[in-house]
Design goal:
287 residues; alpha/beta; Metallo-beta-lactamase, Chain A; six-stranded mixed β-sheet; 22% strand
Length: 287
């Protein structure tokens, strides 16, 4: 069976979230949700998540999974808010523990912050399967952008997170702690080994030069032939040289500091103080 896919685009962070539906029933999963965040005011909003909730309720769907492709550095996850309203289990890659260990130190979280992935309901590794009603999904471990990146292959659809972008925009950066352009290359080869007709759904779109509209769906065949960074069988050394040089020119994402603190906690804010106030940290000269 092949899923019914509904995309939700957040222009503020260029993020695409997805609701993936069992075509024979009411079960669904949410992939890579967004909690809106006003960086200047440090204020959250749930408009993007509420749009997903409205869609699921309007179609009488049942949320079974709230899936993260990785610990996002460019937007906050709305997973706990969605779980409170819709149910479902929150899942991410088992290597979340590596990310938690790295950024637990960056943010000086101390021993109260658990680095075992226990904030999530499920930790996935290569070859694990998930069921969305009668719809079967398989987990691919696709590190490189981060050490915990996953691709969810559900029927004829692959949800690749930040591993690949649209063919005219290329591939993800690899310069965050734990990233690797060589690991990304081999992860992409794993994705490109899927059948040519496999639909690929990307995690972001930035409208490549010359393109007027946002886009987020392509195919394995199109990526192999047309991807500007990895297409036409580009060899490993050429790719890593290009990727590393390009990454050296990039600034940090605008929301990286709040995003990492929240997303490594499965979308939860840090524990409030004795007065109930929540604070996020700004580590100086750490990234």
């Amino acid at each position: 069976m092949n899923p019914i896919v509904k995309a939700f685009f957040d222009e503020a962070t260029n993020t695409v979230s997805y609701v993936v539906r069992d075509p024979t029933g009411a079960a669904c999963a949410i992939i890579d949700s967004v909690l809106d965040f006003d960086h200047a005011a440090a204020r959250t909003d749930t408009a993007s998540a509420d749009e997903i909730i409205s869609y699921i309720r309007a179609n009488d769907l049942r949320c079974e999974w709230i899936l993260e492709s990785h610990v996002h550095a460019d937007h906050l996850s709305a997973a706990p808010y969605l779980q409170d309203h819709l149910g479902g289990k929150i899942g991410i890659g088992a290597n979340i523990t590596l990310v938690q260990d790295t950024f637990g130190k960056v943010f000086n979280e101390g021993t109260d912050f658990q680095r075992d992935g226990s904030q999530f309901d499920a930790l996935f590794k290569e070859g694990d399967t998930i069921m969305i009603g009668q719809l079967r999904g398989e987990v691919l471990h696709t590190p490189g952008h981060t050490p915990a990146c996953l691709t969810y292959v559900i029927g004829d659809a692959a949800f690749v997170g930040d591993t690949l972008f649209m063919p005219d925009f290329g591939t993800a950066r690899c310069d965050f702690p734990g990233g690797s352009s060589e690991a990304l290359y081999w992860s992409i080869q794993k994705i490109l080994a899927l059948p040519d007709e496999t639909r690929i759904f990307v995690g972001h779109d930035y409208k490549a030069p010359g393109r007027d509209d946002y886009a987020w769906e392509t195919t394995v065949a199109e990526q192999k032939a047309l991807n500007v960074h990895i297409g036409e069988g580009r060899p490993l050394e050429d790719f890593t040289t290009m990727r590393d040089a390009r990454d050296a020119t990039l600034g940090m994402p605008r929301l990286i500091l709040p995003s990492l603190q929240v997303n490594m906690r499965a979308g939860q804010m840090p524990e409030p103080d004795e007065e109930g106030d929540v604070f996020l940290k700004l580590p100086v000269n750490k990234l």
